[in-house]
Amino acid sequence: MRYLKLPYIVATHGALACMICSCQPSVPKTTTDSTHVTSTADTGKKYLSQPLVRHIYTADPSAHVFNGRIYIYPSHDTATGIPEDDFGSHFDMKDYHILSMDAVGGDVTDHGVALDIKDIPWAHRQLWAPDAAFANSTYYLYFPVKDSLDIFRIGVATSDKPEGPFKAEPKPIPGSYSIDPCVFRDDDGKYYMYFGGIWGGQLHKWNKNHYDSTKGNRKADEIAVAPRIAKLDANMKRFSEPVKEVQLLDENGKPFHEKDNAKRFFEAAWVHKYKGKYYFSYSTGDTHNLCYATGDSPYGPFTYKGVILTPVEGWTSHHSIIEKDGKWYLFYHDVQLSGKTYLRNVKVTELHYNDDGSIQTIHPSI
Q1: How many CA atoms does the CB half-sphere of 312 hold within 13 Å?
Q2: What DSSP string describes 53-78?
Q3: Distance CA 278, CA 116 (A)
Q4: How far, in Å, CA of 326 to CA of 256, rounded?
Q5: What are the tens digits of pLDDT across the range 65-74?
Q6: Nearest to 146 by CA among 129, 126, 130, 131
Q7: What is the pLDDT of residues 132-165, one digit of tens each?
Q8: Would you state the torsion angle of the CA atoms of residues 248, 127, 342, 219, taken in this order, to the nearest 10 degrees?
Q9: pLDDT of residue 30
Q10: Domain boundaries, the chain
Q11: DSSP classification of residue 326
Q12: Contacts of 243 (CB under 8 A, 6+ apart)
C-alpha cells in the first residue's frame, strides 16, 4: 500500500466489450460498526462496476471459492484521522469483515467481524491485506500486522467456517515479514505463500531474510526489490523452507530496475494457474498498474506479459483472480464511495483471456 497524498488518477476509455451488472443488492448488516459509510462522493464519473458493499469501506480483496460460494477476504478501511504519509500510517485497520455471495451479481453478505486486532496476542497496529486458504478440514486466515517493534510480520488464524470467526495463533509465522500474503494451492496439493511490499511494506529493508531498519528505498538504477515465496508445511502454520526471492523478468529476460516502475513489483502479489501456466500478478504502486507475468513453476522465473488493470481512482491498487462457473473474475478496489485514498470499496468484473493465454486489459472507468 502507498500512501502519499497525490491527485487521483482516472483512466477514461471507450466502450468496453464486457461489463458486470451495476445493480446493487441490499446487503445484510450483521454487526454494529461505527465506521459505516455515512456519505458518498458524487463525482459524476462512470465506472465499469459498482461497489460490492456500501455500508462499510473495504479494500484489497482476496477472493476464493469455498463450498461453491465466493468468499472475499478484504481489508476494512476506517477513518482514523492519522495524517497521510509515505509509510501508510493512515491505513490503521483494526479488524476484518468477510464478505460472501453465491455468484457474481448476487446478494452479498457481510458476516461481521471475523478477527479483531485486540485478539491477536502479538499484534501492535495496522491489520493490512489478508488472504485465506482451506486445508486439513480447516480454514486459515493469513494477515500482516506490525509487532511491538513496528515490524510487519505475517500471522495465521484458524476457523472451522470460511466466514470465521478466526482464532489467531499466539505468535507470527517464524521467518515471515513484510505484507500482502497470498497463499496458492498447486495442482499437487502443495501450498505456497507469496508476500512483500516496498515502501510502507518494509520489503526493501530485508536482505537475505535479515532486517535492516536503516535501509532506504532502492535508487533508480538499482535492481528492483523482488517479491518473496516460501512453501508452507503440512499444518499450514509454518514455512517448510527458507524464504526465497521470486525472479521477475522483463520481456528480454532481464531483471527490472527500480526506475522501471511501470512494470516492476511494488506489492499485492497474486498467483493463479491457467492452462498449465502460472500467472504472477501484482501492483506497480506509484504508477498504479496491475500487471502480470507468467512462468512454468510456482517459484518462477516469471516473465512480464502486460497490464491487467489500468489505474483506478485512488492511490492504491490491489486485486485477486478466481474462476467460478466457467468464468474468470478480477476483484479489485477503488475510492468511488469516498474519494479518499484510505477509504476504499471492493469491486469485481469479468476477466478475459486471448487464445494465446494473454489477459485482455481492463479499464476501470468508462
Answers
A1: 33
A2: -SSSEEEEEEEEEETTEEEEEEEEE-
A3: 34
A4: 35
A5: 999 999 999 9
A6: 126
A7: 999 999 999 999 999 999 999 999 999 999 999 9
A8: -40
A9: 38
A10: 57-351
A11: T
A12: 175, 176, 177, 209, 228, 229, 230
Q: What is the CATH number of domain 57-351?
A: 2.115.10.20
Which residues are catalytically annotated?
Answer: 60, 267
User: Residue 9, by phi and psi: left (phi above 0), alpha (psi -120 to 50) or beta?
Assistant: beta
> What is the pLDDT confidence band of residue 45, given thresholds at 50, 70 and 90?
confident
| Region of residue 44 (left: phi > 0; alpha: psi -120 to 50; beta: else) | left
Total length of the chain: 366
Set of cell numbers at residue 15? 466502450
C-alpha cell recorded at residue 267: 506489492
DSSP 190: -
pTM: 0.90
CB 104 within 8 A of CB 70: yes
Tell which residue, 253, 332, 318, 335, has the closest CA to residue 284. Answer: 318
Is pLDDT at 171 greater than 50 in this prediction? yes
Q: Rounded to the nearest 5 degrees, what angle is found at the Cα of 245, between the Cα atoms of 241 and 250?
A: 150
Which of 81, 51, 93 shows the shortest CA–CA distance to 314?
51
CA–chain centroid gap for 226, Å, is 17
Residue-wise pLDDT for 71-103, tens only, equals 999 999 998 889 988 888 999 999 999 999 999
Range 202-213 average pLDDT: 97
